[in-house]
Structures are given as structure tokens and as C-alpha cells.
Write a structure and sequence with these properties.
The chain is α+β, with helices and mostly antiparallel strands and about 425 residues long. It is built from 16 helices and 16 strands. It binds histidyl-adenosine monophosphate.
Length: about 425
């Protein structure tokens, strides 16, 4: 037999892992509700052009990491799995005429993204993002509101030592001059550029600044900085974002080298890191403003801003910091296990369990054909509060209810059973 494994770069989230994700997703849902975001769901795949146009053709995400789906026929359009949700959400904003809704339209989604990346700890080919987008507000106040929301997510999730890095990467007014300066700078160091970077120099020089190639670190540190080349409007916007962040008490650091990896960004760019994680250069999350994206995907020019937080990385850091245990230990035993004196009477056990479940209770029926003693033993191991014991003969449908924690037992009529168990559970939970 061959051995089957999950595809390279993907992971199974076993129930304990899934419990951590669940807690993070509930937190995301609760926070976004408080901040006025509404959930949206877009397809896991889109026309490839949505990503090529939206994210940019000369980016790692599109050039190297896109999961392209093989077309089924010659004439069918090209599709790709979504590497991120922003392009798809903006596509939906345009398609459904959300320009006519009250602005900004504040949307959130959480789900799997796909990038054909080189797998390593914290870098997967299928990973989860918690994403928010506010479309139709030029900022700068909402920029700070969004950064604060991201920061609060980590705080409430229990991640320690999160650093907020912010920058402005300018707009179509000031970026061309900066790009010319930056191109000149790298041309002066052509011999030191790795092949991919040399190739990108004339096509999309900003991408050199966020190159993952370690050989680029020194060059990039000494490169001209966008923050020294911002036009007056971008500069004023950035100053105001910082003032708002300070007023909200969000600790942040300006990082002039931060340019992000996707082409749609304008002005505000930010990332979240955990300080002092050994050997890890991975962002826990990131986002920024994308004032040109709606128009790029065929809509009326409309500003927007958002972020995506990597849930796999949050879970990883929580585990490193010892903060994931509470959620993982969430395997709850049933309230009651239904057992019976007759090992073969699985019908009675299952019927009673079904009735109790219909009444909303967490109940397991012991379906193994084994002696009562063994059934009770297993109920105890389950951590069940009660055992519902069906006698050798069901006289008037009466059963015994044993409180496994108190060691008491009494007879209960069938019509009272659900109510009695529910009441006992309520008292137990509140007392
Ligand atoms: P991004 O920086 O490409 O931005 O991804 C956001 C986050 O997703 C990263 O900071 C990281 O935590 C997580 N992530 C990315 N790639 C991987 C991977 N291969 N494995 C595990 N986690 C990963 C975006 O995707 C933008 N859509 C964010 C945004 C929303 N900007 C505006 N609105």
C-alpha cells in the first residue's frame, strides 16, 4: 500500500488545533462586529486576471506563488486559487455596485488562502487569514482605526510583545520620482543583485525592497527611503495617521523599509511582528491602503484600506508563548452517557440519547455491546456528569440517573429526564 499524506505545505488541523483557530475566529467575528464590519464570502478561486491586475504581475505572489487551475477546455477562462482575499472582495465591491451603498463599506472574511511558497514553519501553501477591508474612506483617521483593530486582535488573543510597524509608500504623485531614484541606486550595484532581482529592477523596483533573498539585506538597508520622497499630501496623511495612532495609545514604530509585497498599496502600509522571536522574520499580519485598486478592477476611483492577519502564525506564536493551552483543552465531555444493563439493548440506549439530544443536551449513547460495569467505567473516563442507566426491563420507561461526580442515584420518569438533566447542568454551571 502507498502511504497517503496531506500535500506538502498543507496541514491537517486536528481538533486541538482547530479549537485554537475556532477561538481566534470567534474573536475576529466579535471584534469586527464591535467595529462595524459585516462578513462577506467570496469564492476560493477567481479569474486569474483579478489577481494579475489587482496584486500585480511582477510580484512573488503572482509570478511564483499562484496556484493556477488547469483549464478544462480550450475556451474556458483561466482561474487561480486565491492567494489573498482583497482582490476578490474588491472585485465583488465593483460587481455588486457597492459604490451606491453608504460608504465606507466595511467587510470582513476569514478563510484559507493558497500560495505556492517554499514550505517551512509558519509558511504554508494553504494558510488562514482573518481579513478586514474598509472601502470608500480616504482616511487618515480610519487608517489608525484599522491598525488599532489589528493590534487589539493580538492583545485579546493573548499574543505577547506585538510590534506595529508603519510606513507610507506614497502615491502616483510622488512614487514615480522615488522609483527613478531607487532604480538609479540599484543600477549602481548591479553586480551584487541576485538574478531575480536584476530581472525585476526595470520592471518593478519596489519589489527589490521586500526581497526575501538574504543577499539583499545590506543593499536594502542602505537604499534611498520613500519617506524622504513623499509629496506634501502623502506626508500630511502619514503625519495624521501617526497622530491618530498616538492618540489611541497604539505603540508603533516607523519602518521606512516597509513596502509590502503586493502592488496595490498606496500611502499607509503596516505590519505586525512579535519582538524577539528567534530567527523569525515572519510578519504575523499586514495591510495598508489601496486607493487605486477599485479603479484598477473596473470601478469608479474609490479609496480603501484593510489588513490580513495570518492565523497559522498567531497559533504558532501562542503555542510558543504557552498561550494556546486554554483553547486546546476544550474537549468537553458529554453531560450524560446512556448505558444499559442489557449489553445488546442498543436500541433503548440510542433512542433515549436521541430524545435528549433533540432537547438540546450533549449526550453519548454507549453503543458497544459490553457489560454495564464496563459501560459505566467508560462514562467516567469521558468526564460525563451523569450516567442514564436503562434497567434489564424498562418499567414504565423509568431509568436510573446516576450523578457520577456526587455518587448518588435516583429513579426518573421518562417525561422528566431531559428537564432534570438540563436543570442539573444549569446548577452545576452556575454553582
Ligand atoms: P500579506 O502580507 O501578503 O497581505 O499576507 C497577510 C498575512 O498572511 C501575513 O502577514 C502572514 O501572517 C500571512 N501569510 C502570508 N503568506 C503566508 C503563508 N505562506 N503561510 C502562512 N501565513 C501566511 C495580504 O494578503 C493582504 N491581502 C492584506 C491586506 C488586506 N491588505 C489590504 N487589505
Amino acid at each position: 500500500m502507498p502511504t497517503y499524506r496531506a500535500p506538502r505545505g498543507t496541514r491537517d488541523l486536528l481538533p486541538d488545533d482547530r479549537a485554537v483557530f475556532d477561538r481566534l475566529m470567534r474573536l475576529g467575528a466579535d471584534l469586527t462586529r464591535r467595529y462595524g464590519y459585516r462578513p462577506i464570502e467570496t469564492p476560493l478561486f477567481e479569474q486569474t486576471a483579478v489577481f494579475e491586475r489587482g496584486i500585480g504581475e511582477v510580484t512573488d505572489v503572482v509570478e511564483k506563488e499562484l496556484f493556477r487551475l488547469a483549464p478544462r477546455t480550450d475556451e474556458s477562462e483561466a482561474w487561480a486559487l486565491r492567494p489573498e482575499p482583497t482582490a476578490g472582495i474588491v472585485r465583488a465591491y465593483v460587481q455588486h455596485g457597492m459604490q451606491t451603498w453608504p460608504q465606507p463599506v466595511k467587510l470582513t472574511t476569514t478563510g484559507p488562502m493558497f500560495r505556492y511558497d517554499r514550505p517551512q514553519a509558519g509558511r504554508y501553501r494553504q494558510f488562514w487569514q482573518f481579513d478586514v477591508e474598509a472601502i470608500g474612506d480616504p482616511g487618515p483617521a480610519i487608517d489608525a482605526e484599522i491598525v488599532e483593530l489589528g493590534h487589539r486582535f493580538y492583545t485579546e488573543a493573548g499574543v505577547q510583545g506585538v510590534e506595529v510597524l508603519v510606513n507610507s509608500i506614497g502615491d502616483p504623485a510622488c512614487r514615480p520620482a522615488y522609483i527613478a531614484t531607487l532604480t538609479d541606486y540599484y543600477r549602481g550595484h548591479l553586480a551584487k543583485l541576485p538574478p531575480t532581482e536584476r530581472d525585476r529592477l526595470e520592471r518593478n523596483v519596489l519589489r527589490l525592497l521586500d526581497s526575501k533573498d538574504p543577499d539583499m539585506a545590506g543593499l536594502n538597508a542602505a537604499a534611498p527611503r520613500i519617506t524622504d520622497h513623499l509629496c506634501e499630501a502623502c506626508s500630511a496623511h502619514f503625519e495624521s495617521v501617526k497622530a491618530h495612532l498616538a492618540a489611541l495609545g497604539v505603540p508603533f514604530r516607523v519602518e521606512p523599509g516597509l513596502v509590502r509585497g503586493l502592488d496595490y498599496y498606496t500611502r499607509t502600509a503596516f505590519e505586525f511582528y512579535v519582538a524577539g522571536r528567534e530567527g523569525q522574520q515572519q510578519a504575523l499580519g499586514g495591510g495598508g491602503r489601496y486607493d487605486g485598486l477599485v479603479a484598477l478592477l473596473g470601478g469608479r476611483p474609490t479609496p480603501g484600506i484593510g489588513f490580513g492577519l495570518g492565523l497559522d502564525r498567531v497559533a504558532l506564536v501562542l503555542a510558543e508563548q504557552g498561550g494556546a493551552d486554554g483553547a486546546a483543552a476544550g474537549a468537553e465531555g458529554p453531560l450524560a452517557v446512556v448505558v444499559s444493563a442489557d449489553p445488546d439493548d442498543t436500541v433503548s440506549r440510542l433512542r433515549i440519547a436521541t430524545e435528549l439530544r433533540a432537547a438540546g443536551l450533549r449526550v453519548r449513547a454507549d453503543l458497544a455491546r459490553r457489560k454495564l460495569g464496563r459501560q459505566l467505567e467508560s462514562a467516567g473516563k469521558d468526564g460525563a456528569h451523569f450516567a442514564v442507566i436503562v434497567g434489564e426491563e424498562l418499567v414504565d420507561g423509568q431509568v436510573q440517573v446516576r450523578d457520577l461526580q456526587a455518587g448518588t442515584q435516583r429513579t426518573v420518569a421518562p417525561g422528566d429526564l431531559a428537564r432534570e438533566l438540563a436543570r442539573a447542568e444549569a446548577t452545576h454551571h452556575h454553582g
